[in-house]
Amino acid sequence: PLPGCQCRRPAALSVSTSSNAASELLLAAAFVSDAQYNRNIPFKTSPEAVRLYYLYNHWIMRTATYFFIFLNLSLAVFEEPAVYPLPFLATSLVEVLCLLVFFGRLTHFAKITPRNVFWKDTKNICIMVAILLSLTDLAIYGALRIYNIKSIRWSRIARPIFLINFAESRQIRRAFRSIRNTLPEITYVFLLFMFSLLMFSLMALKLFGERNLQTAEGLPYFRNYLEIVFDLYVLVTTANSPDVMMPAFDFSSWYALFFIAFVIVNTYIFMSLFLAVVYNNYKKHLKNEIRKLAYMKHRKMIEAFNLLKEEEGAQPVVREARWKQLVKLVAPDISNSHRELLLRISDDEQKGFIDKKSFVQLADLLNIQVITLKIRSHPLGQWMPRVYKSAVSQFLRSMVRHRGFVWTYDAIILINAIFIALDEETPYISYAEWVFLALYIIEILLKVYTYEPRVFFGKNQFWNWFDTLIIFAALTATILNTTLRSTTKYNSQQILDIVFILRVLRLIRIVDSIQRFRVIMNTLINIVPTMLTFGGLTLVVYCIFAIIGMELFHGKIQFFPVNSNAPYALECGNPALKDSLFARGKYCKNNFNNFASSFIVLMELTVVNQWHDILCGGRPAKLYFIAFHIVMVIIIVNIFVSFILEAFFVEYSLEKSEVETGSAGCGGYSTILLEKWEWMLTVTLLLPSGYRTVDALLQRMFEAEIPPEDEGPSFEEILNLSPTAAGPSHLTSERAV
Length: 737
Known about the structure:
It contains 30 helices and 6 strands. The chain has helices at residues 3-37, 47-56, 59-74, 88-112, 115-120, 122-146, 160-165, 170-208, 225-236, 246-251, 256-308, 320-330, 336-346, 356-360, 362-366, 379-383, 385-388, 391-401, 403-421, 427-450, 453-456, 462-487, 493-505, 515-553, 581-584, 595-607, 611-614, 619-661, 694-703, 715-719, and strands at 310-312, 315-319, 353-355, 369-375, 671-676, 681-687. Its main location: membrane.
């Protein structure tokens, strides 16, 4: 071989090795990031695909996807029938733009996933079909509109598919899977319920049909079997109780026993049975979903470890330098001190490498919120040291720190609440409000005097910010109200209402003073983010039923001002509603004439109070409302209650255990590390992460059962886990290398 070739070969080999190491590091970072955020997208592992995968998961891409999803859904507000009408050309161009974005996002997803996986994924097929249907419907509707032929936009009902089926909406898909998995058991209970309803309806027909009874409106009472079924179905929701019973009860008091038996069996037993079945199945399938997430997270961390591992004796490890490069890729925004802290936890013996057990915990460590408090002296102690450190000043600061100071102001708040309830026009009451406001301002000033201001107003000091903002907003509003009343004849009732509300909000501060209240409040706050999943689920159902309702009932009911002289104004624009409960109740605004009104009607139906009065329009309307009641109230609301129960049990038990016993460690509950640096004392707090959800808590509990040395099942086995499969030991013998 030529000498030149011999010289270049080691350089080429070095470049190749360096390139492979960089690719492996990038791939390992993708696995760790997926484990951190519980993503389970199967992606190609080539360097180009991994870079595209990073781009796919970038927050700008995800935010843009959500923006166009909600923009597409909001088009219903501007399309006929519209709340704010826009030209058809404008809405159609926006819809085409949204569909192009969705197609681009789907194409991007196809580039990063294996072809066989992409085409087997049902959600991708649903998105493509929805895009095709929307474009077809848009073209047909536009062509018919040119020739002034009335048509309907039937593809609008498919718009929620984009919210459900994109990879970003995995939480909503999981909720739908819970519903789908629960349906078989619910179906059996529902069939029994319907059998009971039909039997009671038949008994009612035989008992009351031949009695020639009449309702309060003079209509025949219980003579039509289908009407009886509907009336008793409404009675299950208690919306028409006791009205539906009164004609029979007036005829004979003994007939009340029939309705009492019906309510006990169908309202209390069957509705409770629905909740029990939904909760039991939801809990079972939730645990299966969480188990899949735990296995998937564990598996991805093992895959990342295998890419970066080196041999240290007989033990595979990841070198410290390699670990730092990985963390810098996964979490580029964290500070160097934060990174060093994570390294100290992972390599507590400072051996220069991280073993497999510590490496697997990296995803959890990255989800832990780290707060660095720089303990500084008070500025007044530097500016006026003699005054600030005097005996009087020290006594004043000790008094503010004492628990009695908090109790005193809690008592002041309660007394202030009594004064708020009294008549504002009384001069003494008006003057007293200034006294209370002055006391609150003194409280804030004393606390700022006692505690270092930058610590007192730290980003995690919610209650301090809350107190200060409420007090100074109330001061501003009170001064403005007094000024306007003294200098002009302006009626400042609205400002006065704001002042009252701000004063009442001060009462919330008492909640933080009582430990058990604080536990419950923290529990509610912690489950709020996960409740957004069911907000999305409700949005999907509402959108579908709102669009169907607008197509079925648009224009059948009209709202007129009180003094309107329009024909049939008292009948909501529909002569068929003359003397109906709907017209007499002045429910004319409850209509499906636009998207916003439809949402309000559906919200009223979800509450179920007086929903039978809102219903009008014959049997099609009854079928529509019953279908909505079954889907929303019986299924989704029960799923939501099941979630709240499970979430509250988990969160409350953890919050309570933290209060009673305290805990420390990288599991996420309160580790305090003190480090003496050359220039300051730094207190680093490891607190529960903002990413802490009920799913994450349940997942952490399940991960405790997985042995660190167990690599677990393969990705394919994880995705095929059934709810009846055993725990971690069930699959420890089947390992993917």
